[in-house]
Structure formats: structure tokens, C-alpha cells
Amino acid sequence: MKVDIHQSWLPYLQEEFNKPYFKSLMEFVNEEYQTHVCFPPKNEIFNAFNVCPFNDVKVVIIGQDPYHDFNQANGLCFSVNDGIKHPPSLVNIFKEIEADLEIPYPESGNLMRWANQGVLLLNATLTVKAHEAGSHQNKGWEIFTNTIIKQLNKNKNNLIFLLWGGYAKQKINLINTKKNHVLTSGHPSPLSANRGYWFGNKHFSKTNFLLEQALHQSVKW
């Protein structure tokens, strides 16, 4: 399977593409897409990198794996296509933004508008079989996406990593918190949010404060 990824990422990831684990991963993904319904569409697997070039990355949000129902996943974590009902986690993300920044709840759940502002929406696993959450985990994607986190951490300063939930929080071991920022909270899923681990984290205003301090910029959430 051809890796269709924005050229700005190639200096940092080219070595990975030639490693045995990645070749095996691409063979597995290719076979899965030929024999099962999988998401996101094949041409959107690397969408997160194509809409957010390496040099533009300012904020990194880490998800686990793509939505596994029809027409939802578009290669950006937590994002759904225009016109698609917002999944519960995304509803809670938007509710927190609404409360934190006092802006209206958005109509579209497509987070391309964030990616275009330098927010890398990175799932740890980039593909999934239809209706089977986690079905493509532990096949090599995590090695690849951990490398992405390491390369960003190594080559950038004042990045802001938003780690939501236990799985994402494990990635803190890959981040130098002396040169980059980490904000953690519970996951926005109803299970976590309804227990009080999500709402009120103010991650969106905190992120903008840090961006304004470092870059005199902010994200229009």
C-alpha cells in the first residue's frame, strides 16, 4: 500500500517506512481493506498529516482509534464528516469549549478547521474494521504514531500536547515537559465525563494562553 503523506513529514518518517514492522503493517492494512469494510477510507488514512504539515503543528490531540461506523471517520481523531451526528465524546468536547470560551456549539463535527490551524489530530491507531473498536490495535500503528510524537517532541519547542484519558496519558513518557507543554484530563467519553473527569478542564482557553505567550497566536476552536 502506498503511503500518501505530506512531504513535510518525510524527513522525520522516511526511515520508518523502510522498517520491517511498517512493511508488515502495510501488508496487514491492505489485506484488511481488500477483505473487510474498514475506516477511514483508504485515501484518508494519513489525512491528519496531509491537512496539518509538520512545520505547522502547534497542538497535538491524541485519540485511540478511528470511529468504526459508516461515514464517521475522516482520518482526524474525534472528528466526523460534515452532516454526521456528533458522537458522544465529540459532544462533550464541544460542550466544554462552549463553557470554557463562551462560544456557540458548532453545527459541524468536522475538525478540519482545527487541523488547518496547526492542531494535529492524531489517533494512535490509524485504521479500524467496521463495527469492531480496537480491531487494528497492536499491529504496528502504535510504533509508528509513537515515533511521530517523539519526532515532534525532539524537533519542536512550545508544542502543546492534550492527553485525554488513561490511554493518551501514557504518551507523556515520550514528551520532554521542559521544552513542550502537556495538559491532561479525563477522557471526554460519557463514562469519564459524567464522573467529573472531563468538564471544567478549560484545556481550550489554557491552550490559547500558552500559544499566545509563545507564538502570539491562538486557535479558533
UniProtKB/TrEMBL annotation:
EC category name: hydrolase
Molecular function in Gene Ontology: uracil DNA N-glycosylase activity
UniProt main location, coarse: cytoplasm
InterPro entries hit by this protein: UDG_fam1 (IPR002043), Ura-DNA_Glyclase_AS (IPR018085), Uracil-DNA_glycosylase-like (IPR005122), Uracil-DNA_glycosylase-like_sf (IPR036895)
GO cellular component, one term: cytoplasm
Cellular localisation: Cytoplasm
GO biological process: base-excision repair, AP site formation via deaminated base removal
Family annotation (CDD domains): UDG-F1-like (cd10027)
Any one Pfam family match given in the protein's UniProt record, by short name: UDG
Record-listed E.C. numbers: 3.2.2.27
Signal peptide: none
PROSITE patterns in UniProt: U_DNA_GLYCOSYLASE (PS00130)
Active site: 65
Segments forming domain Uracil-DNA glycosylase-like: 50-211
Top-rank lineage group of the source organism: Bacteria
Catalysed reactions, semicolon-separated: Hydrolyzes single-stranded DNA or mismatched double-stranded DNA and polynucleotides, releasing free uracil
Keywords for the protein's UniProt record, in alphabetical order: Cytoplasm, DNA damage, DNA repair, Hydrolase
Xref: HAMAP family: UDG
Family membership: Belongs to the uracil-DNA glycosylase (UDG) superfamily. UNG family.
Purpose of the protein: Excises uracil residues from the DNA which can arise as a result of misincorporation of dUMP residues by DNA polymerase or due to deamination of cytosine.
Protein name from the UniProt record: Uracil-DNA glycosylase
Species per Swiss-Prot/TrEMBL record: Neotamlana sedimentorum
Lineage: Bacteria, Pseudomonadati, Bacteroidota, Flavobacteriia, Flavobacteriales
